[in-house]
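We emphasize that the prediction below concerns an isolated chain of 411 residues; any contacts that depend on oligomerization or on bound cofactors are therefore not represented. The input was used exactly as deposited, without trimming of termini.
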Amino acid sequence: MSDNTPTDRMKIDVAELAIGMYVVELDRPWTETSFLFQGFRIRQQQEIRLLQQVCKHVWVDSRRLRGRQPQAVENQAEAAEQRPIIAKVDFSQEIEQATPAWHAARNESLRILEAVKLGQELDVQAVKAVVRECVDSILRNPAAMLWLARIKNSDHYTAEHSLRVAMLAIALGRELGMPEYQLEQIGVCGMLHDVGKLKVPDEILNKPGSLTAEELQIMRGHAIEGRRLLMSNAQITPATVDVAYSHHERLDGRGYPRGLNAENIPYFAKIIAVVDAYDAINSDRVYSKGKSNLESLRILHDSAKSHFDEVIVGNFIRMMGIYPPGEIVELANGEVGIIIGCAPGNKLKPKILRVLNAKKELCKEVVIDLSRTTVDSSGKSCRIREVHSSGAFGIDIEAYRRKGLFIPSNL
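Result of the prediction step, given as a token string:
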């Protein structure tokens, strides 16, 4: 019998909650609360206070009441239940912890790829260690890691792309309600999904023009090479192999290398496929300029059902938002600014930090709240005319954050 069958559930008033109780259902949707997982054991008084703020009553598992522990920690999912659920901190605080974790993960990604190029074995434990730190950060506050993933200033595309895919996948997994042990798994899958590209010659990988049919076949072979490389390592999980092999499969059966249809594509591969495509579309390459967040999400949306899982895409779009902090926008009056946040109920009218005037010259920074302002001092419209990709107009978004001019607020 399932732990959550109706006979195991007991409705209680939130005033009666105590540490040790296992909450299985709320009197409102989980998505309307700050709890990370749907179902958790109360470990902190803070969790009780938060429940009392948002609910009148909840349902608890009568077989997991206070003082009673699960009979056995049989797998990682049960172990994940023991970890604290509420661990959110402010962006400004988390960015201090996230930054060294990000750089460590980036350096590890570079080291992994270099080692594989030299024919050395993957250091799987090192990969897991840096992913663990990133998972911890994303559970405290996903905005910090997602912000760092927006800063693209390196020539090491494959390594940084793999790291960004890992971070996006962890954050998306959190959005989808995955337990922590699965967030770690999907992070490792993201870090290693493109390892097979190390077997693709640089002149093909970085060719500025269109690939020939033969070159395209070699490029697509990276999925097979990735599977081969990962299967040779006893520490690699089957899920990681599946993702490397299947992240270019498509729901309509027109993907590669096997042309799998929707029901045969592993779930983790479907998740990685979405974030992999997003980052590729959103990043500058030798053969194409990266598109804005808005355009990248539109492409994903248009490709849902045929290429990508519709539910996963929907959750990803909701997580990223149409106007995420750090996006560079040009207003109808010609001025340029950086999005610094959106009010929860006004996602289409963000706050902008204006940094360039209509002549595209640096000017005094001013915050413009588009939910309250429609025209400038001369009567010209302040609506968003165009959204640009990172680095547009030579704007260094991280420099403005370091100067303390804004704190991203809606991730």
